[in-house]
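Narrative summary of target 7.
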Amino acid sequence: MGVETLTLIANPGSASRKYGLFRGSSAVAWIHFEHENDGIACTLLQGKEDRKLDARIGSMDQAAGRVVGVLRERGLLAAADQPHAIAIRVVAPGAYFLEDHLVDDQFVHQLESAMRHAPLHITATLQEVRSLREQFPDVPIHGISDSGFHITKPDYAWNYGIRLEDADRFDIKRFGYHGLSVASAIHTLHKHEKLPPRVVVCHLGSGASVTAVYHGKSFDTTMGYSPLEGLIMSTRSGSLDVMAAKVLQESLGLDEAGLEEYLNHQSGLLGISGVSSDIRMLLQYEADGHHYAGLALKAYVHSVVKAIGQMTAAMGGADVLLFTGMVGERSFVMRERIVERLHYLDFLLDGRSNKACDNPTELVCISRLAHSRPIFVIHATEEAEMLRHVK
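Modeled conformation, tokenized:
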């Protein structure tokens, strides 16, 4: 890629849209659309300065059509310029999506076929793909796998306890997700020459997972066939006994779409607390004596701690504990509550360093020097990892 190559990165989530514009390997700007109050807010990050802008859209599926306008209005993209390449993060189950692909009609067909198995993320991805193809018909679009990092897992970490012939026939495997975030964190450790053989990566955001990374490669992870498996998350239930799901569906009179909505949008921290899915709000409620907010936070910490133990056991130990994702990066309280239950693994926090770390841009060490194995906080840069894939 030449130095002047312009690459637009699109990272559609179930409830937000993130974009990054790169000139060569340098970030020009980041744009983030998210729901705020009764509308959609747009934030532009340029260098270390961020500012709120008028989103001028009524729904998230219009974000891709607005992002270039924002860049041109701010003088970050000339009127005659357009991206030379576009990359989009793809979260979808299936062996096909373990690899990166150029977005073409076959790719769209594969997405549409997989949508009924994971509509939460694929609906947003399809909306984004269609909008980008319409705006930039002559620009190559790269579908970047969010599962590809996990392809190195040993064969016994891929399977559920079902007949292999059925698992192979219907493509039911533990694919795993958050691969781009984990790969980015491992890349940062390697760059700073702090990558040991056994790393436990906690990606804690609205979605959450814990991954075992052995000698720089994925060994196992808590998410499975879909991003619903594993930890209790903001609005997702995490792992749930299939019979319990069946009882819920029958008792509440839900169809398949209704059950999907219930488990993805009405469960997790929101479901247990009954008041919020936001860690910050739950901490305030808890301080005010709200029992269920406190219960939700305890259940969340418990699920993360169990997963860390699980991933540590899978590798026969852990040399480094790493936090990333919005909660992992910004909530010193949740990091404190998690690590205080990991002393048996020789992980101890430095209280001052932990409290001072609330919005890291680089690698930050928050462990007690000379008394603890290293604990790091790393800003998740999925977009930069996607750029490396495009290159």
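The first helix runs from residue 63 to 73.
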